[in-house]
UniProtKB/TrEMBL annotation:
Coiled coil: none annotated. Residues 211-287 form the Transposase IS116/IS110/IS902 C-terminal domain. It comes from Bradyrhizobium elkanii. InterPro entries: Transp_IS110-like_N (IPR002525), Transpos_IS110 (IPR047650), Transposase_20 (IPR003346). It comes from the Bacteria. It holds the Pfam family DEDD_Tnp_IS110. Residues 7-143 form the Transposase IS110-like N-terminal domain. This is Transposase.
Amino acid sequence: MREIIRIGMDTSKHIFVLHGVDAAEQAVLRKKLSRKQVLDFFAKLPPTVIGMEACGGSQHWARELGKLGHEVKLMAPQLVKPYVMRNKNDGRDAEGLCEAMGRPSMRFVPVKTAEQQAALMLTGIRDGLIARRTQLGNTIRGHAAEFGLIAAKGVDKVEPLLARIAQDETLPALARELFVVLGREYARLEGELGEIEAKLMAWHRSDATGRRLAQIPSIGPIIATMLVMKTPDPLAFRSGRHFAAWLGLTPQDHSTGGKTRLGKITRAGDEDLRRLLVIGATAVIQQARRGRGHHSRWLLALIQRKPPKLAAVALANKVARIAWKLMAAGESYDVARMNPIPAT
């Protein structure tokens, strides 16, 4: 077999399909492996470059193959798709991966360590617990409304509602028993959420980069932690503009014939991180509109001429670029650069 310069590997739960090429870009390897055969096969292979889609399980395989001396490159599926030929199958997918990773303009996803992957679980579990708590709170309010007990929306309104239900002797005994079950489940979720958030804050306090990011207005511990976790290699982006575009905070470009046509934001990249950056920017804009705090001339002029939602996206874009600069250069946030206007 001629020397293999790179291998595209299409992964699944049980079947892995390989497509390798030599220096002349000729196919020299087409092979199908079971899950148990993958590591044994690559352990016998000289070190080479392996390309995979960034999908479920790809980080694990990247770490395992890296231990065997191979260089693993992960690619976003939407960037690989144009290189997959017609009549899609596993072999064509592997061939498309092999072709895509050889393009000079291809962008790759950094491989995360096991510790970074474990830290990411904190944010995912926190979001899941918040969603279940919201669902359970709505369930409690909905059932209570059927008995004439109304409560406003909000996490802090659920426990007072449960207390009113417990004191209401007009409710049927069965209903009170079931509300106790719901209340017990709600309290359990609150306790678990508190434990996860404590672990998240401890992780944030132990990370120097996260502490520097938290100095930026609109970025708190949660957003700073997610930025660090989800951007293990900020130098993978050429500039802050590329980082903001990766997050989907730039407008869609559909220009042709010399005419510029910009639309809504692309919403590419990580949805949770983009959502949190916009929420943080919205909070800053609300304070600026009420005349509270010190804000840059740029922001004050922006909210005068743009609707609040457009201003929030623009501010989120700028914050993302600032965050990239701090992560890439190891700098701290400089308030003086934002040209704050003294409060009157």
